[in-house]
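JOB MANIFEST
job_type = single_chain_structure
chain_count = 1
residues = 801
[input]
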Amino acid sequence: MKFYAHTLDGKSQEHWEPLFTPFGEAADQCQRETCQKCRDLAPDHGHLNKVAFWTAKFASEMFAPDSPERQSAYEWGYLAGLWHDLGKFPEKWQTYLKKKSSDAHKDEICGTEDHTTAGAYHAKDQIPLIGHLLAYAISGHHSGLLNGSAATMEEASLANRYRKAASKKIFDYTDSAPREILEASAGLNLFPELLRDAAERKDPIRFASFTRMIFSCLVDADFIATESFMSPRSATARPQWRNDILKMMSKALDEHLADFSPDSEVKAYRASILNACLEAADRPTGVSTLTVPTGGGKTLSSLAFALRHALKHGLDRIIFVIPFTSIIEQNAEVFRKVFRSLEASLGLPVVLEHHSNLDSAHESETSRLASENWDAPLVVTTNVQLFESFHANRTSRSRKLHRCARSVIIFDEAQTLPLHLLKPCLSVIKELTGSYGASVVLCTATQPALNKRDDFEIGIETAPETEIIPESLKQGIFDFFSKRIAPRNLGKQTDEQLVDFLDQEPRSLCVVNTTGHARKLFSDFLKTHPNSDGLFHLSARMLPSHRSALLGDSINPAAGTIRYRLSHTLPCRVISTQLIEAGVDIDFPVVIRSLAGMDSIAQAFGRCNRSGLLPKPGQALIFESEHEKWNSWLSSATSHSREILNIYPEDPIGLNAINHFFRLFIWQQGNRAGAYDKPGITEMFTLQPRDPAFPFNFLFKNAAEAFAMIDSAQTGVFIPRGDEGKRLEGLIRAGGPWERADWRSLQRHTVSIRQREFDAQIGRTIESDNERGIPILTCPDLHYSEDFGLTFEDDGSYLGI
């Protein structure tokens, strides 16, 4: 009989996708490694062939051409793709598919006809010991990576899948699947060196990471192959990158920087930082640090290092990781300005901006459309997106992981890594640099103390020369930039005193710790100064598109934006949460910051006299809010900051002060059990050498549920604001048709709110029963303020954090 992988609605069987094309030399057969039809995702070639080809390609590309792991990774990928749909061969499953006559591949379980367990069980039987790792990847290629063990027989787990297969509760594939598939692993060396090393060191994290990476290769290949058959129009929209794209980008950046003239002391120091980055680019791959004061131009300097470093070592892409979703679009725009001409000549956007405020908790067509596989030369993303993806079990979140191998990954504002997840986050960095050829740059003005030492075992083992800026230059840079400001501690301040202070300073930035405090200060100022000119409020309750419009630029007046008013010495008072502290190129003569961690204070002060053009140092002021309950979540950081302020009153954000702060804030936590891994993520992966039937007990699902970089669950709400918002609302309600660009635009019209707040508003001001299940604010005119963003109540309940 003829076997099919997918059907097409309204199309007869001759148009369906074949499941497998026999291997051989004939033109209509598959030539495996060199098969042009598999490379081109030809519809007349078998789905297993195409997925095997692309999974193998992705897996091998995770390792250098001369790496001993490259060939074994290729074989792992090929077997994963070849066996992933083994359960579709039985005649009963094919009968079911024909009856359904629709895309059965959307479902992990087709009615009662499980087609994923077969390949997992076969991998476990065919490959001694480490075949279980392949079984995890195959069994989860629709539903997501499973837990290894389960408390009950009914709970989804790999162990229960094995029991199901052993008890003949899946269709028998052994008589229908071709021998060349079933015996494909015979004679292969499938034990990569990195797994041998992990076995010797009894390191479950390395085994689990390898499983995730193979899983990523498989689901990405499966998505691409399925899309090419089911939606050829979408498939043709995928970019085809030139082999020399990074070289072209490096040239474009050089041309952009050539126009840079060091005609001031600030610019001269920025030039010295850039030169240090270029000189360091030839260093070996691994972990580097780039410690540059705020305003030192580290964004473009780190990009220059990354491009030159990638070209030197044959790496594939640059991934720029930013701490906050609220500022990602600003950093991405900096890069787009650099590469605008190049993008125009290529007809392709070289900068991929990827974050997801509308990230569904369940696999769906929408989540797959929204997911990215990071097939771009420059990806701009967030800490949340990167680290949560590495700990996720869902296919749409995991498909990008293999793209991180052999990449340069720049962590901007590295000090923002969450302390309670520091151990699993650092394990990701260690695996990427130690196993997958990546280079990581920890880029910040306030370098956290993450190097390994006797009293900090989870730290990163770094080479003797890790810092990009030479010590002989670094102290001078920091001394110069510190002279731009005059720090002062004001102590306790009431809101009334803060309003009076802002009244006296017409060009000032006030940064507070909570959205409630920012809103209250703004409201209080308006009450006492109703005709105030140039007053702005910024918080995460505002749409990214709204915040960008308020910030504006220095040339276009655009209704008096912040940057325009500052550049033309007009009154401009901004009351903001910490979202303005990182990645926002903005320059005030006066900055006042509510007490927080010294790293946050230093970032805020980086917005003060940023260009060094004032005739005297800018005012950089620290105060303690009267609303102590709002800041209780910052108690540890603020207590250490008070200590630093007492020890270094004249220079609280200098190199010595910041290093001292991180020693207090990070290293002293080691005495507290679980301080660096509060949910116990790393303990969810164990080796069981005494149980040869199940040697790897990895709780992938549990880890995904436990790993949350934002402590409280949040949900995105789409707000149909402006013409683009109305257009997107029409798409949502009509059910499409959707393009990836539409989804990205949707993110810029989305605000994330706490789950409990969302639950209270669903059915009242938020509806989500449209075809896509996207939460929509039903009355934006009532519940979206031009001053405050998303609001629900006027009874004062917003005063919480």
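[summary]
The chain is about 40% helix and 10% strand.
The mean pLDDT is 87.
exit_status = 0
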